[in-house]
């Protein structure tokens, strides 16, 4: 009766069950009550759903490849992720297919199509919708990289909120700054959302007024230059800025110096990631160091474990430690490069 174009997610909604339950019924695996099984089969029959039979191919490791899904590949952050992920995949002689969703009209559909050509998928947090993650997880092994996935989907990440809070506390408590602004768009990625939350958390912990809305810009150096113009136009400019990443912070340094001001004397600037250039600019950038390559390598290892049917030994998730790297751009003495670490924990 149906068109045959319904997705597993739509069948789950019609049957009043989860995507995983539809997958178990259509593949004949797992424990499902007889009443639930009949309800799902009725929905499948009435609407002409044709499930993907990818599970059988995965058991035979037919593809010998895994997929890595990013929004785009610009900048050193993505380069580090790719190198870390591929270095681990190479050990098992598994090739890596990369899909960039940026500027694609139907990125979710592209990712689902890619799932037919790989044995598992690693998806950068926030790249595709949670519903699509659930649909993919019903088809093949999926791990979320640098973000949280839906319930039951493994994830590997850092605690962005705690790291941003530690950085902000350093500026508020150790330097006595009171007018700080956050540079980045919390609606643009889960990482920035968490860092904005940590920025606000530090103000609450010190019983300070909550900061005003962030300066919403992207995550590349030109965005930081633009943000500097916005900051310096303020009637009462801030004493410091907490940028969502290092690339934005480096652009901020350029924009501030281009307007004849100095960092940190006139404006404190900090970043996040600790890319190579952070230690090489003048003044060197105070930032948060996250183990980007290790994050990606651990994601690849976890994905390969699950794809090989070894999910019993695989961690459901892991939160990696970060380090607060204190350098000259926050006002600490030039030459300072001290660190403090947030803990590692399993989830």
From TrEMBL:
Q: Which SUPFAM superfamilies match?
A: lambda repressor-like DNA-binding domains, Periplasmic binding protein-like I
SMART domains this protein is in? HTH_LACI
Q: Name one GO molecular function term.
A: transcription cis-regulatory region binding
Name the source organism.
Micromonospora viridifaciens
Keyword match Protease: no
**Domain HTH lacI-type as annotated: residue spans:** 6-60
Coiled-coil features, chain-numbered ranges: none
Task: Report the CDD domains cross-referenced here.
Answer: HTH_LacI, PBP1_LacI_sugar_binding-like
Q: Which UniProt keywords apply?
A: DNA-binding, Repressor, Transcription, Transcription regulation
Highest taxon, organism lineage: Bacteria
Please report the name of this protein according to its UniProt entry: Transcriptional regulator, LacI family
**Transcription as a keyword?**
yes
């Amino acid at each position: 009766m149906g068109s045959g174009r319904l997705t597993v997610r739509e069948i789950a909604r019609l049957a009043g069950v989860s995507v995983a339950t539809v997958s178990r019924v259509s593949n004949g695996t797992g424990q499902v009550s007889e009443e639930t099984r009949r309800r799902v089969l009725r929905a499948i029959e009435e609407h002409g759903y044709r499930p993907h039979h990818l599970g059988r191919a995965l058991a035979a490791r037919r593809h010998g490849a895994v997929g890595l899904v990013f929004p785009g590949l610009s900048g050193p952050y993505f380069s580090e992720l790719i190198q870390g992920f591929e270095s681990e995949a190479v050990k098992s002689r598994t090739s890596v297919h990369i899909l960039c969703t940026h500027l694609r009209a139907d990125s979710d559909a592209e990712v689902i199509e890619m799932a037919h050509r790989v044995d598992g998928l690693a998806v950068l947090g926030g790249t595709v919708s949670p519903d699509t993650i659930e649909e993919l997880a019903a088809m093949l092994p999926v791990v979320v990289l640098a973000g949280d996935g839906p319930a039951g989907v493994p994830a590997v990440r850092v605690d962005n909120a705690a790291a941003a809070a530690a950085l902000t506390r350093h500026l508020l408590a150790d330097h006595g700054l009171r007018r700080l602004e956050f540079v980045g768009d919390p609606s643009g990625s889960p990482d920035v959302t968490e860092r904005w939350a940590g920025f606000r958390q530090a103000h609450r912990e010190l019983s300070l007024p909550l900061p005003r809305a962030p300066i919403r810009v992207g995550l590349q150096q030109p965005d930081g230059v633009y943000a500097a113009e916005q900051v310096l136009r303020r009637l009462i400019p801030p004493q410091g800025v907490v940028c969502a990443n290092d690339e934005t912070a480096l652009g901020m340094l350029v924009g501030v110096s281009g307007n004849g001001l100095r960092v940190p004397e006139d404006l404190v600037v900090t970043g996040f990631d600790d890319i190579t250039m952070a230690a090489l600019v003048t003044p060197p950038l105070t930032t948060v160091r996250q183990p980007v390559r290790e994050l990606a390598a651990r994601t690849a290892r976890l994905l390969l474990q699950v794809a090989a049917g070894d999910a019993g030994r695989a961690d459901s998730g892991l939160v990696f430690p970060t380090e607060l790297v204190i350098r000259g751009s926050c006002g600490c003495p030039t030459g300072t490069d001290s660190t403090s670490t947030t803990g590692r924990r399993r989830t």
